Amino acid sequence: MKWSSTLGKRSRLSALGVALAGALVITACGGGSDDSNEESTTNARQVTVYTGRHYGIEPVFEAFTAATGIAVRFTTGSDPELRERLAAEGDNSPADLIMTADAANIELAAAAGLLATVDSDVLRDAIPAELRSADDTWFSLSRRLRVIMSSTQRVTNPPITYEAVGDPQWKGRLCLRPSTHPYTQSLVAALINNRGVDATRVIVDSWVANDPLYINSDTDILKAIANGDCDVALTNSYYLGRLLAEDPAFPVRLTWPDQDGNGAHLNVSAAAVTVAAANRDEAVALLEWLVTDGQQLFSEANHEFPANPNVKPGAIIAGFGTFVADTRSVRELGRLNPVAVELLSAAGYK
Amino acid sequence: MSHAMTGKTSAAIGGWVTIGSVVALFASPVVVLAWSLLEPDTDVWAQLWRTRLPGMIVDTTVLLVAVVCGAVVVGTSLAWLVSAYDFAGRSLVGWLLVTPLAIPGYVGGFVWLDTLSNVVGARGVRSMWLCAAVLVVSLYPYVYLFARAAFADQGADTLAAARSLGCRPFEVFWRVAVPAARPAIAAGAALVAMEVLTDIGTVRLFNVSTLADGVMRVWFDSGNRGAATELASALTGAAIVLVAAERLLRRGARRGRRASETPLAPQSLSPARSSLALFGLLIVVAVAVVLPLARLVDWTFEAAGSGQSVTVAGGVGHHAGNTLMLAGIATLVCITVGTVLALVVTRRGRAARVVGRFATVGYAMPGPVVAVGVVVMLAALDRRNWLPDGFFLVGSLVGLVFALVTRFFAVGYQGVEASLDRLAPSTRESARVLGSGSVRTAVAVEVPAARYGLLAATALLCVDMVKELPITLLLRPFGVDTLAVWVWQATSESLWVQAAVPSLLMVVVGMIAVGVLLAALERGGEFAS
Q1: Contact B393/A at CB under 8 A
Q2: Over the range B92-129, which residues count as b (16 or more CB within 10 Å of their CB) and which as e?
Q3: What is the pLDDT of residues B341-363, one digit of tens each?
């Protein structure tokens, strides 16, 4: 009798275990309510943004809220992280608008069917055709150029083409961003678009042969030039703008590449409304504001060139002079991204 | 009698159902990954094999060997010094040597990266060896903790006998103490190996391309979740081999001292040697903890002084609050489910133990791999629309907690299981014979007896959860940013100054958890000082 009751109690422990495991499963299935309910219960207009741009984005959103009364909730991350996140969340994504720092990732998101088309004359009028997708899914917010940077102290004749960066005289003197970064991938995708895979492979091989120092930050690359760790590098132009704003005597000079050829590699920061958008009107409003009333603030916050040709660039970057940019490749960067990634890894680019 | 049989059968069924559901829950992300191997994307594999995969395997192997060897040498010798010798400040230093656990490798990493780049240049600083050194400094405490517990368990008589047989001090250490402590050192080394295999934050800083980093690359650079999944499965295979190797090393486990033997008594050192020992150990503490902390504080003041903003969107409170909330919930779930599973497993015998192990497989998987598995699984569930409208798993708090618990379940479960094992079987039997039921035995006898083990596991889990990066990064619900996410975003743009404040806060939380861990170990008698 004693035994049976003991065993009976023993089974209770198991029952408790089953109950706990069950509770865990049930809780798991009831999840997500905290996020989704929040949106439906608040009456104030708002828009939820996934942004791959971090710098100075908060004051821009604040200005938008002040102008329109629409609140902006946002989360940051790298472009590919946000894209993969959007893909995994599918229709349940809280994101209304996605902003990327690079054209390839937003095009890849469009190709994956994550972006909605926006039929807006405001957007079409503000943004030149080559800076928005053919199917009206994504629109550029600013232009960014990947250029040649060199030391003003140790380099008298900087390279003037992407090809020349692979010249043996820069062996051990070159700094590049790793191939994990979208900027590197898009630069190579643009080279492929202009010159084909084989010619691009020769260029990338010559860069790799120069034993570059890979640094995963354009700012650090420029500082490495200033510190004498390398003499020549490829970075986006606005990073120098930022450093010159802090120290006008910063010993790095900018050279516009390929001015007699295809022009400097042009990439864009871009934005698009998601197919999952619960606040589509607000998202479109933010998008339109960013390329019109907010365009100056948006581009100047990061020393970038405006995407809207009617808006003037800031004083520091205007000082970099006029240049020819490769406008034909922008819309091809997404399509050629996988080719570029494969080429980079085949070439042994870190 | 038939009544008893029914009770016994239902207990067995209940027990196995419990074990089965927990294992099914936590092993499912791995099953999802393994599933993908049935239809491998041969193109991607061929391309990987031609290009980066060989390099990844080499980098992973070299880093693994270097860090594990380094951590074993550093951790074991520090533990021996503190266990076998007595000197001024020994007790305090013995504690301080554990504190590097509170400093994540990627925080120590960016501090040293910046500090040393002024000395060896930007090129020299990005090296495999510095990366290994940073990881050794942040991970040796695992070996140190296990080795100290093992040395404390060794009999003084054996060591005295070795000495009287003419062994010099180093020989006593090398030929007697170390072999006896081998299983414990192996257990510590296995933890270090897992941390190295699963690290993504530190290796990226130093341009070291490991397999875990490769999973992130393939997933995000190529947007190829399928290929990332396959690479992830391969990595998990490697981790499982490592776990098996550790089991083999443990197999020769010798019993510690006999009950009659007196425990190891530390030898007093002469004043000169005593200060030398203290000085040497303080240098280790300085390098591992004081210097990084000083640099972080310095950056914070520098930023505050120049009027730079040191916070990010949402502010410090938001990030710190989320870190505490997430670490708290995930730790609690881990410990609760772990305790229940351990209790059930100890009642169901050897087979149950083997099956129970499968629930811990997440610990052998890098964070990004767990994240891939969980995303694939939860997204599939979401697509079936089993949940009411507006409810979903991907991007929900529940999805994130599930992934975190899957990843770290081993830490909670094995900690509890080990404590329960130490309980003499007679204690449990006596309680039962005296008429205490299974639940009552568990609540009144077993859990209280294992309380320090539970507390230690809780503290260790907290340290892990606070540091955790990739899973939180990829699965956090909208608007839930943690300190680790903030550090990652700032360091990925080399904004060290902006990474300083959240890093400091993480270290503070980690230090508190390490303090609790040490107190629990000391009370539990595993860490006699």
Answers
A1: yes
A2: ebbbbbbbbbbbbbbbbbbbbbbebbeeebbbebbebe
A3: 988 888 777 788 888 888 888 88
